[in-house]
Design a protein that fits this description.
It is extended and about 100 Å long. The longest helix is centred in the first third of the chain and has 34 residues, at 2-35. It has helices at residues 2-35, 39-52, 57-70, 73-86, 91-103, 107-121, 125-137, 141-155, 162-171, 175-188, 193-206, 211-217, 225-237, 241-251, 256-271, 275-288, 294-312, 315-319, 343-359, 364-379, 384-396, 401-417, 421-432, 439-449, 452-464, 473-488, 492-509, 513-524, 532-546, 550-560, 566-580, 584-597, 604-619. It is mostly helical and 620 residues long.
């Protein structure tokens, strides 16, 4: 008897486990069929399981979805009604009954079911949301709007579901109603201002005639600071800068938040290269900001100084496609050779940075001011002594991590600027042990000092441990290939020519641009046969352009166009014609040579896109 009792007890324990295993297997097969799109098999399995487990909610939901997808709305209705007999308070099932009736083209019966639902659950916001989402899915806009309108009265909440209704209209490109709902949301949820602003600005891009957004925002009957702030952002986005200024002035200067609003406005103007407007905005800030507010005063002074600095920097130089090799960091100096600052912009920038240093306590602003002064003196005016002093002062003021790394880099580059590559090599050798980012500057110093044996060995060992995704990998690999081709495996003439090239690059770093170009010209004209001569021709052509010697640069570019790397010659010729001489027609002729004669060039796609942009601008 004890044995029988024990077996009986074990059987009771294991029965639900076997049942769960069977359930799991059946449902897994049904879900697999569903994922594969085999609705018939999935339906059969779920219906079989539902017949023996009529209260299984998960199976019920899956069957309703299957009937909906198969268009079997009659079976969907009967299944829902059967569910409601067991669970009469299942709100989801009550909703689905109305849906099943509507999908069978029984709109009156469907609305009767939904009306009963609304009457029963009219005080339940979750239930009303379920009803609205059903109407949205069935694209019943009239019912949807009516339900939300009644609910707003019922709950005394004029912003109830405003975001959902706005999104509904926006997806259907009904931007006028969408704007109304977003502004309704703004009245009841002022904390969503940034979200609403972004949505309205996005619609200003999408709408064919976005002026109605301005009209709604300017409505005098519903004016508020939040609406005006969004209107100012709209004016900035659409390029109506004078109107943006007008709105910012109208909003006033009553709190620190207003100053921060102006600072953001000025910074956005500067980033958008609206430099004269940015200057005007920063000047207004400085006229209103409390001088005791060091954070805001510092931001304004620094921003204004950076704006004057931006007026100095030739942005086109950094946008060029025709960089040497192309844009290899080992052949790129930090100097702005083509910068021609006006005395006024340069002096304004320098004076403002000095003002920060005089008026601000030691802080991130003084560190930034010293750094920016050092950058102007190093990269633009080539005042290396003052640059060194400002970089060192910036370090003492405690800059951030990125700024510290930049300053350390510049301190090493100053050795190169002063014609001392050996000093730079020793400096970067010390720092590359602490930071791998200084590996490339160390190799540059080896190249400029002419120590090509050590450079080749160092590149070989370093590249072995790198992956192609690392920042300097491609530039290092390109330099390694040059050394392998013209130094390790090259002729004696190749090796001599490569060393003379490194001397020319050192002259360039020493700000002796003309001497560097002459060194390249003399070296490439030697009576030897070497592919390296084409690279030196390319490099000299680039340097001539940096010196504003357009005719000489074009002559060299035309010679380069007849070589194995002629695509770069045509590109350089086109850029001189377009940017330096303003002859777009002849520039296009040069660019088209790349499309017609160099279809495999890495320049093909960017040049094609530039041609399209250029022709569109010309037509407009």
């Amino acid at each position: 008897m004890k044995l029988i009792s024990w077996i009986f007890t074990i059987g009771i324990i294991l029965t639900p486990l076997f049942s769960q295993t069977g359930e799991s297997a059946a449902k897994k097969r049904a879900r697999l069929y569903l994922q594969q799109g085999d609705l018939d098999r999935a339906r059969d399995l779920y219906e079989q399981w539902s017949a023996t487990h009529p209260t299984d909610t998960q199976t019920y939901r899956e069957l309703i979805n299957i009937y909906r997808r198969m268009g079997d709305f009659a079976t969907m209705e009967s299944t829902v009604r059967h569910r409601l007999k067991t669970y009469p308070n299942d709100m989801q099932a009550q909703m689905e009954l109305g849906e099943a009736l509507f999908l069978q083209d029984k709109p009156d019966s469907a609305r009767q079911a939904w009306d009963r639902f609304r009457i029963r659950y009219g005080n339940n916001q979750t239930a009303i949301r379920m009803l609205v989402f059903t109407f949205s899915r069935l694209n019943l806009e009239t019912d949807l709007v009516k339900t939300i309108t009644l609910a707003r009265e019922q709950f005394s909440d004029p912003g109830f579901m405003a975001q959902d209704l706005a999104n509904y209209y926006q997806l259907r490109r009904d931007y006028s109603h969408a704007v109304d709902e977003y502004l309704r949301l703004l009245l009841t949820r002022p904390d969503r201002e940034a979200f609403i602003r972004d949505k309205l600005l996005l619609m200003s891009d999408e709408a064919d005639n976005p002026e109605f957004i301005e009209t709604r925002l300017r409505n005098p009957d519903q004016s508020s600071p939040a609406r005006l702030r969004i209107l100012a952002a709209y004016y900035f986005k659409t390029g109506k800068i004078n109107q943006a200024f007008e709105i910012h002035r109208l909003l006033g200067w009553s709190s620190s938040k207003d100053v921060n609003r102006w600072l953001s406005f000025a910074e956005n103007l500067r980033k958008d290269q609206r430099l004269s407007d940015a200057v005007k905005a920063y000047q207004e800030i400085l006229a209103h900001v409390n001088q005791g507010k060091q954070q805001q005063t510092g931001r304004a002074l620094l921003g204004l100084a950076q704006t004057f600095e931006d007026q100095i920097v030739p942005h086109r130089e950094t946008e060029s496609l025709s960089g040497f090799l192309p844009g290899n960091r080992f052949f790129t100096t930090p100097y702005y050779f083509r910068a021609h600052p006006t005395p006024e912009s340069l002096q304004n920038a320098l004076a403002l940075y000095d003002s920060i240093l005089v008026t601000m306590k030691r802080s991130k602003f003084t560190a930034a001011a010293h750094l920016r002064l050092g950058e102007i003196q190093f990269r633009i005016t080539r005042d290396f002594d003052r640059a060194l002093a400002n970089y060192q002062s910036a370090l003492e003021a405690g800059p951030g991590r990125d700024e510290t790394a930049l300053i350390r880099l510049r301190l090493g580059q100053l050795y190169l600027a002063r014609g001392n590559p050996e000093g730079a090599r020793a400096y970067f050798k010390q720092w590359k042990r602490k930071n791998p980012a200084f590996q490339s500057p160390y190799f540059l110093a080896l190249f400029l000092s002419g120590d090509l044996d050590r450079l080749e060995s160092g590149l070989d060992s370093t590249l072995t441990g790198m992956t192609g995704a690392e920042r300097d990998f491609n530039d290092m690999a390109e330099l390694q290939d040059l050394l392998a081709t013209y130094y390790r495996d090259g002729s004696e003439e190749d090796r001599k020519m490569l060393k003379r090239w490194s001397q020319a690059e050192q002259l360039l770093w020493s700000d002796k641009l003309n001497e560097a170009a002459e060194e390249l010209a003399w070296t490439r004209k030697q009576p030897i046969d070497s592919d390296l001569q084409d690279l030196l021709l390319w490099r000299e052509a680039e340097l001539r352009r940096l010196m504003n010697q357009s005719e000489e640069s074009m002559t060299l570019a035309q010679q380069l166009a007849a070589t194995e790397i002629g695509d770069h010659g045509w590109l350089l010729l086109g850029e001189v014609l377009e940017f330096d001489l303003g002859d777009r027609k002849k520039a296009l002729e040069a660019y088209y040579h790349i499309l017609n004669d160099w279809p495999q060039s890495i320049l093909y796609e960017p040049v094609r896109l530039h041609i399209r942009e250029l022709t569109q601008n010309t037509e407009s």
